[in-house]
Structures are given as structure tokens and as C-alpha cells.
Amino acid sequence: MNHEPDNEQLLADVLAETAPADFRAALLGETLRLVCRRRHWRQTRRATALLVALGLLAVLVWQNFPLQPLAPMPVAKAKVKSYELIHTQPLSAGAIVVTRTFSADQLVASVATAEIVRTSSGNFRVINDDELLTLVSPRPAALVRLGPHSEQLVFANPDDERGFPIN
Amino acid sequence: MLTRRLVGGDEMAYRAFYDAYFDRLSRYLLVVAAGNEDAMREALQGTLVRVVRHIKVFQSEDVFWSWLTVLARSAFSDETRKRRRYFSFLERFTRHTAVEGNGAGDSQMDERLWVLLERQVASLPPDEQKLVERKYFARRAVREIARELQTTEKAVESKLSRIRRKLKDAVLAELNHEPRT
Q1: Which tens digit of pLDDT belongs to each residue from B39-83?
Q2: For chain A, what is the domain count?
Q3: B15 interfacial to chain A (CB closer than 8 Å)
Q4: How many angstroms away from the CA of A38 is the closest CA of chain B?
Q5: Domain range for residue A163?
Q6: What angle do CA B54, B57, B58 make, to 5 degrees?
Q7: A31–B168 C-beta distance less than 8 A
Q8: Range B105-181: architecture per CATH
């Protein structure tokens, strides 16, 4: 009797006799669960390591190369000049205001046309009732006493109240 | 190639690994465990857990198998320690030495089983021996054997099962009693 690999079936069958039927399947299932768990754990570990490495790299870059201001203006770096250059441009014709001399007839000159009458204190005298009536004698008038020191000169002709020449 | 896929955690690779090595590891551990089937199963479970945890790429199948036997002996040793925690140091040392002694002949583990099996088959009664030879060495179908023996297939299957159980018990008993050096 030989035991070539072809006859391995006898040994397998003999040893499998009375063995729990589901032992192999249960062990395979358990092994696959363990494999799956380890694969997930490995993936998680790799992802974590990658994140940590990226974080460290970012910190290193940030420390060694501080961020520059975005789009720096060239003017800010220009040399400071001792003068200020101002650009001008001519105004349009509509924006210019011009003046001209008036003709003689358009000129209005102001001259003194009123005579100034000056009065001086003490240059008058108080007249009595008779002298007043004599003064207005050409015109009919009467003195009406209103009170102890109050009298009113009343002209018969109301037009005389506006004045009349005295000789 | 297989070990590279195992390292990658490929489930199909693990199925292929089971197909290729489950029975072989079982037989190996059965010899290491001196025919103790319970110890063999526990050690086998520990071995497969170790494979998942420590798998690496091997270029050669022989080297891979050697690595598997190291894992198997280590697992068996751990399981033995667990089960016999209260035994004396001397006994543990003796068992450890026995395991190491078995490990010295990794390539002869299957050979030992075969020798034991051949011996037991040879000691079977002639009719049983003939039945085994027809089924396993002449590769005859059960239906054919039943027709030759003028009996039913079920009767042949039943008889074969009894013979296999007897062979197994005898092999395990011999493994358990043979010297471990």
C-alpha cells in the first residue's frame, strides 16, 4: 500500500470522521471576520497617519514660509519721490465764465438829489395863541381848547391843514 | 502570490488558503497534540488567528509551510499552557520539550500519520481491508462496490463509515501512546 497524494482522501475521510461538521465553516467565518476587522483597522490607521503627516507638513510650511499678502501693489514698493505729479486737463468751453465792460448808457450812477436841512438847538421861540392866529390869519381858523395845556388849531377849510405859503 | 494576497487582506485568498492548508494543518496539529482532537481544534483556531495577525509575503511554499508549523506549535503550546495552568513546572517543561521534539520532524508529520494509518488498515479484518482498498486505492464508486458485493449503497456507506471511525480511534490512540521523541 502506498500513500501517494491521490490516496490522501482516505486520511482526510478518516480524520473527518466524527469531527464537528461545521467546525471548518465556523473557523473560516471567524477568520474572515478577523481579516475584515484588521483591514478596517489598517485603513483607519493609514488615514490617521496621513492626516497627521499633512497637519505636521502644514505647520512646518506655515512656520518657515509665512503667508505673503495677496497681490502686492507695485506702488507700495516704489521709491518715495520728493514731488507729487499732478495731471491737468483744459476745461471745456461751456465750463468757462467770461466778463466784459458795460457801455456808458448801461452804467447807473448815484448822485445827491436831496438837500439836507440841519437844525440847531435854541434857534426858535415859543409863540402864544394870538401870534399863532396872526400867523395863519389869511386862512380862517380857530383854536379849540381841549384841556388846561392842550389846544388844537382847527382850519375851516380842511385843505389848509395840508399847508399853505406864508408871506 | 497567495501570501501577498493574504497580506492585502483578500478574503478570497483566505478561502484559497483554507482549501490548501486547513486539512494539512489539522493533521499536523493532531500529531503534535498526540491525537487529542479537542487540543488540536483549539490549537488550530489559535494558529489561524496568528496567521491573520502575522502574515507576511513568502517566496517559497516550503518556507511558508515551515512558518505555519512554527505558528501551529506556538499556538498549541499556548493552548496547552492555558488548559493545564495548574500543572507543575516539570510537566509543562516535559510537554514543551515534547512539542519541540515533534517540531524537529516537520516534514515527517504526515508521514507518521500515514504509517499509523497503514498499520491500522493492515490490521483490519480481510473484508474491511478489501472494502477500503476498493474505495480508496482502486477508486471504485460506491454503487459499483455495492453491485459487486450484492448489497445496497447505503449498506456500503454505513460499513465504510464504521471502518473509518475504527481507524480514526486506533490512529488517535496510537498517537497518544507512542513515544514523543
Answers
A1: 899 999 999 999 999 999 998 898 999 999 999 999 998 888 777
A2: 2
A3: yes
A4: 8
A5: 126-167
A6: 110
A7: no
A8: Orthogonal Bundle (1.10)
